[in-house]
Amino acid sequence: MRFLLLLSALVLSTAAGTVESLANQCCATLSNIIPNNVFFPNDTAYMQEEITYYSAQQTSQKPACRVSPTTASEVSQIIDQATRLGCHFAVRSGGHMNWKGSSNIGPSGFTIDLEQLNSVSLSSDQKTATLQPGAPWSQVYDTLSPLNLTVVGGRASTVGVGGFLMGEIVLSNGTIVTASASENADLHWALGLGSTNYGVVTSYTLETFPLGDMWGGTISLDISQAPAILNYLANFTLKLADDPRGLSAVTLAWNETSRDYDLFVSTAYLLPVSFPPLFSGLEPFVPDATSDTLTITNITAITADFAAGDPSGFRTAWWTLTFELDPQTVLEVFQYGQELFSDLVAVNGTQWSLNIQPINQDFIKATEAANNPAGLEGDNLFLILEHVIWTDASLDDVIEARSREFLAWAEFIASERGVLNRFLYLNYADGSQPIYKQIGSSNLASLQEVKRQYDPDNLLGRLWKGGFKLP
Ligand SMILES: Cc1cc2nc3c(=O)[nH]c(=O)nc-3n(C[C@H](O)[C@H](O)[C@H](O)COP(=O)(O)OP(=O)(O)OC[C@H]3O[C@@H](n4cnc5c(N)ncnc54)[C@H](O)[C@@H]3O)c2cc1C
Q: 151: domain CATH number?
């Protein structure tokens, strides 16, 4: 028995050695092709790219090399070499997907870091903006805001464009194609839920719309206000049908300093008006706020404020679910999570939180009209994000186990009450959540058909690690 274990350990380490030496060979080959932009573990550029991931688990991965292309044609050469040699690789834009391996890889492969593909440009009529994936939203807003323009983007300025939207794309055979409603329309559709299945997107063109100053910020309240604020959020979600220009998101979060839970309401409105009717239900809470950053300013400042509330560099876990508009179930799920994580939050530095965001029925109708592959259905919904932050790597397994237990219970309770919606938002999901299982069989079959056309040998399924893979 012992002999067998030793033998299998030897086989595994030899296999790991072989994979790592292939990765080193791939890096050496890429170094010859784009000599100035392949970085190795002792290079300053390698270290700088590694520390700019949002989560510490991603930073802890050390690829054989990091490759930073400056043009789509270089991306094409990299993919071509990777698929010829059989190299494993990961792709990173803003580095804000949190789970380990989602956009980074260990010594068994290399990481394509798109940080140098970061231009933001405007068409001559200013009706469209073309963004490259390495540009964070702060750069997009900084460029467009002085012109009183914006695009639909992220609420936290530090997040990357890459994982968000999907233009111009490098396919598994290294060819560069355009995906739009009129060109490769099937691919364009599939990229709506494409993750790492179809190719590396090297630019996106988005419609611009006018935006001057706006109103927004965050108030914090005592956690005892949670029932009333969740009722406010349910009403707010319904009111979006009359005025879709606003966002209110609620976070119930452990505060390490006060050693208790706090409640945060983050708010944004696309006009420079304080407390328009859409937010009338929020105004009565403001006198009791323990902090208040609500102000009229520009989108750059507001998204920087939101990003400041969620800094990089910690170990983090994100898991998601979707409920019907039922404040009571959210409250009970929160109470369950508080109990489940009570011993862990007592450990210095561990913070557990629940974030709840509205999905109004008109958003759902719009995605249905666009035939979005995510298969979002239903009426008005609450998008739920369970979020854990900690520092001690020895807690990784226990936090994962608790999060699973929390999700299973929350799913069970919501299902029992008939308030569980099948939607799992890809951007908020843990890597183990079954993103493609809940989109409906017809959407899944169509996505798989597009995959067969654009990556017939499933090269990207086998070699590109990270993201969510089509079953
Ligand atoms: C603080 C914070 C705030 C957030 N706010 C929002 C929000 O307001 N709205 C929202 O929807 N989500 C939000 N998210 C979630 C975020 O959108 C996702 O995590 C998203 O995947 C991040 O994109 P990125 O480019 O930064 O990530 P990365 O980690 O670089 O990439 C994410 C995934 O996309 C793949 N990928 C990267 N670049 C490309 C490319 N060019 N072509 C193809 N695949 C690529 C990667 O391989 C990886 O699988 C937030 C996350 C954080 C941490």
A: 3.30.465.10
- Whether ligand 1 lies within 6 angstroms of the CB of 469 is answered as no
pLDDT tops 70 at residue 255 = yes
Q: What is the pLDDT of residue 347?
A: 85
Residue nearest to atom 53 of ligand 1 (CA): 96
* Cα angle for residues 325, 331, 334 (degrees, 5° grid): 120
Nearest 5°: CA angle at 447, between 109 and 320?
70
- Which protein residue has the closest C-alpha to ligand 1 atom 6? 154
Number of domains in the chain: 3
Structural domain contains residue 200: yes
Q: Output the pLDDT for position 13.
A: 54
- The pLDDT of residue 346: 87
Burial class (CB in 10 A: 0-12, 13-18, 19+), 15: exposed
**62 and 76 co-located in one domain:** yes
**389 beta partners:** 316, 351
- For residue 256, what pLDDT band results from cuts at 50, 70 and 90? confident
> Which atom belonging to ligand 1 lies closest to the Cα atom of 202?
41
* Residue-range definition of the domain harbouring residue 98: 2-116
Pocket lining: 388 vs ligand 1, CB cutoff 6 Å: no
Q: Domain of 36: which CATH number?
A: 3.30.43.10
β-pairing verdict for 176-178 and 168-170: antiparallel
> Is the pLDDT confidence value at 145 over 70?
yes
pLDDT digits (tens, 9 = 90+) for 274-318: 999 999 999 999 999 999 999 999 999 999 988 888 889 999 999
Q: Are residues 166 and 266 in the same domain?
A: no
Residue type, 390: W
The model carries a pTM of 0.94
Domain assignment present for residue 156? The answer is yes
Strand boundaries in 278-430, DSSP class E: 291-292, 295-297, 315-324, 351-359, 381-390, 420-421
The strand pair at 109-113 and 66-67 is best described as parallel
With CA atoms as reference, report the closest residue to 162 among 212, 204, 218. 204
- pLDDT for the residue 161: 52
State which amino acid sits at residue 191.
Answer: L
| 133 Cβ inside 6 Å of ligand 1 | yes
| CA–CA distance, 117 with 124 (Å, rounded to integer) | 21
Q: Single out the residue of 318, 467, 330, 434 nearest to residue 385, CA to CA.
A: 318
Q: Is 250 in the pocket of ligand 1 (CB under 6 A)?
A: no
Average pLDDT of the chain, as a whole number: 93
**C-alpha Rg value of the chain to the nearest Å:** 23
- In this predicted model, what pLDDT tens digit does every residue of 158-203 receive, in sequence order? 554 544 455 899 999 999 999 988 899 999 999 999 999 999 999 9
- For residue 4, pLDDT over 90 is answered with no
In a domain, 304, yes or no: no
